[in-house]
Write a structure and sequence with these properties.
Serine Threonine Protein Phosphatase 5, Tetratricopeptide repeat; 7 strands; three-stranded antiparallel sheet; mainly alpha; 22 helices; Arc Repressor Mutant, subunit A
Length: 474
């Protein structure tokens, strides 16, 4: 029996479709398969029938499970009075096939299996917790696909290989038109194939999309690449490979797979030029910071701050300030934050200035810094700073006794974070939103967010990394 979840959902036995009478039956099956562990009936009933009381919700669950168990067989869908599970390995599931192929390095086969987003075109409007789960899993799988495509696109050692790599880079851009790394890859591949005109057109397309969607210009690295192509200089396919490896480590960071992210960044930094190392050191510091490994974070922040322009140093110091604050060193935290503000003002870099005001808002509890950071964060291509500021403003409004304004900020922050796919910060945002909802007396909705927060935190850190659970403001 096969189950297709990438694209529109479909279940088949011997090539013939198995039809279910409700959308919730399909959603329930998908959830049980992908969660891959025994689920309690009470948890499933609450998730899929949130507006019903417990008895009615459990009755609805029984009615929904009955035809699914009949179609799959009792040896596949195992149930008792308390629990429900799909027997491991009993079904051929395309999501599991895709992930196995990625894990074993069979990337061309993996990307061919990925025929569409998870449960494409499918939704359950009356089950917001399921929709949140679906959205999060979609983002994870898209990131895994992007990582596989990036590695394939970086393998361009022959003419035939470059032709395939161009197709993979194009698919990366189809996934996300704003993926500037993918635009850079495609520009390099066109140039390496001898088609400078196509490379320059791709730059123009990148400029157009960023301006239309975000109102921003390309990154300095993209502009510099364009100039090298225009002048007929080398564009560095080796650099493209390192960019793909770095992008894969970025994805691991967003997923909360911190050990893999550290290994990826360390591999990149071993081959990076001196000018490229400060940015990677900064990323390594941030991953160790997220894990609460303060000594390692300190080492990498120090290395990251030793080179680079004022804007780069300001961003490093702002993040270093937060690490010192979380580690219980307020004196160093405020010193770093003030230095970050001075450097960012001198450099004029908007992102650095927003980060400096954000951390000063945390440390001084002066909301004017956060409001200034929010204003500066508008239009930045990376939503990370804006997510942080919105979260911190929500916490500030809650402390000042205005939960209604806090709710608006918290919801905006969570929506942006879910789109970005940063699971660790999403976990913290669900937890903070639960506090706001509790203050407003919305206890049932608060509990749903609290459960989602606990699930995400446990997937990232579990019991092994207690500092992961302590994230509140950043």
């Amino acid at each position: 029996m096969t189950v297709t979840l990438l694209g529109p959902p479909r279940v088949e036995r011997d090539g013939r479709a198995i039809e279910f009478d409700t959308r919730k039956a399909i959603a329930l099956l998908a959830y049980l398969i992908l969660e891959g562990r025994t689920q309690s009936r009470d948890q499933l009933a609450t998730m899929f029938w949130p507006d019903a009381d417990q008895d009615r919700a459990r009755a609805s669950l029984r009615r929904t499970l009955s035809p699914v168990r009949t179609a799959l067989g009792e040896d596949v869908l195992r149930t008792d009075t308390l629990r429900v599970e799909v027997a491991p390995g009993a079904l051929a599931v395309d999501v599991e096939q895709f992930r196995d192929l990625v894990r074993t390095g069979r990337l061309e086969d993996a990307v061919s299996v990925y025929r569409g987003d998870l449960l494409a075109g499918f939704s359950l409007k009356d089950s917001p917790e399921f929709e949140d789960w679906q959205s999060a899993r979609q983002a994870e799988l898209r990131d895994e696909l992007r990582g596989a495509l990036g590695r394939l696109a970086s393998d361009a050692t022959t003419v035939a290989g470059r032709a395939r790599a161009i197709a993979y880079a194009r698919r990366m851009i189809e996934l996300d038109l704003l993926d500037e790394i993918a635009h850079q890859m495609l520009m390099r591949l066109y140039a390496a194939s001898g088609d400078r005109a196509a490379a320059m057109r791709q730059y123009g397309e990148c400029v157009r999309v960023l301006d239309a969607e975000l109102g921003v210009a390309p990154m300095p690295e993209t502009k510099a690449l364009y100039e090298r192509i225009r002048l007929g200089e080398s564009t560095g396919v080796d650099q493209m490979r390192r960019s793909a490896d770095e992008a894969a480590a970025d994805v691991y960071t967003l997923h909360g797979s911190y050990a893999k992210a550290i290994a990826g960044y360390e591999a990149v930094i071993a081959e990076a030029s001196p000018d490229a190392r400060p940015d990677i050191e900064h990323k390594l510091a941030e991953v160790h910071h997220r894990r609460g490994n303060w000594e390692a974070a300190e080492t990498h922040y120090r290395k990251a701050s030793e080179r680079g322009d004022d804007g780069h140093k300001a961003r490093v110091l702002a993040d270093w300030s937060l690490a010192a604050h979380r580690h219980g060193d307020p004196s160093r935290a405020i010193t770093f934050a003030r230095k970050a503000l001075a450097l960012s003002e001198r450099s004029g870099e908007v992102r650095a200035l927003a980060q400096a005001h954000n951390i000063l808002g945390i440390l001084t509890r002066d909301q004017r810094h956060l409001e200034r950071a929010l204003e500066l964060s508008r239009g930045l291509p990376d939503p990370g700073v804006r997510i942080a500021v919105l979260n911190n403003l929500a916490l500030a409004q809650l402390r000042s006794g205005d939960p209604d304004r806090a709710l608006a900020y918290a919801r905006d922050a969570l929506e942006l974070s879910e789109a970005l796919g940063d699971r660790h910060r999403e976990a913290a945002l669900h937890n903070n939103l639960a506090d706001v909802l509790q203050a407003l007396g919305l206890r049932e909705e608060a509990m749903r967010h609290l459960k989602r927060s606990a699930a995400l935190f446990s997937e990232i850190g579990g019991a092994r990394e207690p500092e992961v659970w302590k994230l509140v403001e950043w």
